[in-house]
Structure formats: structure tokens, C-alpha cells
Amino acid sequence: MRTPVTIIGAGLGGLTLARVLHVHDIPVTVHEAEASPTARTQGGMLDIHDHNGQLALEAAGLTDEFRALILEGRQAMRILDRDGTVLLDAPDEGTGGRPEVQRGELRRVLLDSLPAGTVRWGHKAGGVRALGDGRHEVTFTEGGTLVTDLLVGADGAWSRVRPLLSDAVPEYAGTSFVETYLYDADTRHPAAAKAVGGGSMLALAPGKGIQAHRESGDTLHTYVALSRPPAWFTAVDFTDAAAASARIAREFAGWAPELTALITDGDTPPVLRPLHTLPLAHRWDRVPGVTLLGDAAHLMVPSGEGANLAMYDGAELGKALAAHPEDVEAALTSYEQALFARSAQEATEAVRLHERMFGDRAPHSLFDMLRGEERAASAG
Fold first, then answer.
1. At what angle do helices 241-250 and 257-264 cross, to 10 degrees?
2. Among 22, 202, 204, 308, which one is least packed by beta carbons within 10 Å?
């Protein structure tokens, strides 16, 4: 197939697609709004799953490079009660199927695997319109346009490409995260570092939670979850870091100080991350010359699957295009039918996990689920 592929968005999904296309000698360009690969930080840790994310990296021919990024010990998990009581302490025995890497490092590996010039930085899509016969025109906010015969929206929650296919708009999920970091935690914040342990820690209650992960070195990356309406967060002045941290911490009054320190002692200003979702069974009718992947296609509440699914989408789309070199529409149809079924199942599971984490029985509902999985694995 020689039809050039135009990808909007240089996240993990778009880059995985670009790499798989490159492996199969299919011409591709990626247009990214950010000015450079280092324009912003790329988030924290990712657990890359053996049933999707790792398969995508295998299709991309990057398994060895991925394995070189793995941070040993980070699959350890702890569940704490609000008073700091340890309910579950699962060590990383090196046998799990979800090794942890830094998102930014994984993105760098994908970028380095592409020929120079594949990614066009500083190209933010401002609008997209259909021209007929499967051709589309993309207009960039910085000026200029392009016309393509095969367009892929890998541009996230607020995709500019999605309206070509679907009227769905992300809706607030009822919960927001507030993100903080603690640096040199073992030295400067020893009690919090001990509470988090060597991997991830979840301290949960109905409608709220403090979740943290040990990243490279002794950095603790925290996501504070609160189920509150948007107006509640609007009333918090996030331009005043100390005041905002104190206001968020008040929602955890009476919790163990080593847990609330993850909020109040943050070394970075707290950042609000509202959660949005698309419909659980989001799908669209086949439109010639265009498709979606990742959050643009199936935005869901966090479950540990988002990045994995985006990469798997990219790999599966790339393989479908390679398998149908003379029939792009057959490739897109095959890809989308599998995507719809996969996405609906994962989105449903994500909602169930969210309820276990923040529903009326939290944290015991999550503890019971994990214990059940552990017993099932032992029985198998």
C-alpha cells in the first residue's frame, strides 16, 4: 500500500501506529500541536500490559527497547485505610504481566524509532473538513493546510478529527484528580515514602482517595481523587498553590498525616485533572478515508488501560492497513469492528473498577476484588 497516512497527534497511540506503518514501508506523517518533543512533561509511570501494550510494542519491533526501560520493583501494590492501616501489601516478585516504565521514556523510544521528519512539530489541527471521495482537508492554527486520502485522529479527548465520524462529546465523569509530586521523598518525606512503599499505593474511601506511585529515583507522584461537581473545583484557587493544597487536604481531615502529606507537602503546585468520558459503547458508521484511535475513540475513566489500548489500537490499525494493501476501506472496516467490541468491554470494566475504588464500600470493595483475583490465579 502506498497511500500516505496522515496522523493527527504524537501521543503513544499515534506514534505506535506510525512505527508499525514504517515497519511495513507505508508512508506516514504525524502532525503534533506541541512545539517539540520536550515542550511539556509526559506524565508519570505506565504499567505496560502483556495482553495489549506489550503486543503493540512487539508489532512495532521495540520489545528489547521497552524492556530496557522497565523499573524493577514498581509492580508492588499497597492498599491502605484512611488511618494508614495496611490492608494489602503485594510485593513485586518479578512475575507480573504489567511492568512499569516512565511514559516520557517510552515516548522517546517510539520517536527515536521513526525516520527524521516523520513528526511535524508545532502543527495544531484547528479544523478538519471532508472534501468527498474519502479525502479530507486539515487546517492548522499556525497557518497552512493539507489534503489527505487517509486521516487518523490520534488527538485525544478533545479530538478535532472525531466530529467527522461522531457527534459524541466528552462528558464530566463526576470525579477529578489533583496531581502533586514529592521529590527526594526518602530523605525529605520519609513517612510518606514509607506509606507508599516501592510501587503504587491506594488509600481510598467513598468518593475520594489518595493514590501515589514511586517513580524513578525517590519521586512520589500523587493523584488525589475527589468526586465533586465542576463548580466545587472552580471555587478552589489553583493559582495559589498553598491555599489550593490546604483546601484539597481539608477533604481528608482525620486521615493519617503520612497520607495527607502527599498533598500538603507537594513540591509542585497542585494541578487539576477533571475526568471525562465518551459513551461506553461509542461507535460510528464507516466514513471513507478517516478513523480514530486511543482517547479520541474511547475516552474512559482511568483503569490502567488507556495508554495500553491506544498503543494496541495503533498497532492493530497499522497491521490491518498492511494486510489490505489494495483496499484501505476493508482495512478500516476490519480495524473498527474489532475496536468497537474491545473498547466497549474495556470501558465497562473501567466503570466497574472506578466504582470499586470510590463507591460506597471503598476500599474494601477493591481489596475483595484483588483478593479474588489472587485466589483465582492460585487455583489456576
1. 150
2. 22
Question: Is the C-alpha dihedral spanning 328, 330, 335, 339 positive or negative?
Answer: positive
145 membership: H or E segment, kind and range: strand 145-148
The distance in angstroms from the start CA to the end CA of the chain is: 44
Residue tagged 466530529 (cell numbers): 163
**Residues 33, 121 contacting (CB under 8 angstroms):** no
At 91, the amino acid letter reads P
CB 178 within 8 A of CB 271: yes
Relative to beta strand 200-205, strand 77-80 is parallel
The H or E element containing residue 6 is strand 5-8
> Tens digit of pLDDT for each residue in 313-367?
999 999 999 999 999 999 999 999 999 999 999 999 999 999 999 999 999 899 8
* φ/ψ of residue 129, rounded to 5: -140, 150
Q: Which tens digits make up the pLDDT trace of 19-76?
A: 999 999 999 999 999 989 887 776 688 999 999 999 999 999 999 999 999 988 889 9
Beta strands in 166-219 (DSSP E): 171-182, 200-205, 208-214
Cα separations in angstroms, 107 against 28, 69, 300, 304: 17, 11, 21, 17
**Phi and psi, residue 67, nearest 5°:** -65, -30
At 108, the amino acid letter reads R
> Cβ(124)–Cβ(263) under 8 Å?
no
Helix (H, G, I), strand (E, B) or coil at 327: coil
Q: What is the DSSP string of 331-375?
A: HHHHHHHHHHHHHHHHHHHHHHHHHHHHSTTTTHHHHHHHHHHHH
Distance of CA 96 to the CA centre of its chain: 20
Instruction: Give SS3 for 171.
Output: strand
Task: Provide the edge-to-edge strand list for the sheet that holds 208-214.
Answer: 86-90, 77-80, 200-205, 208-214, 220-226, 171-182, 271-277
**Overall pTM surpassing 0.85 (yes/no):** yes
- One-letter amino acid for residue 6 of the chain: T
- Joined together, the cell numbers standing for residue 321 give 492497513
Residue 54 CA to residue 68 CA, distance in Å, equals 13
Whether omega before 363 lies within 30 degrees of 0, making that bond cis, reads yes
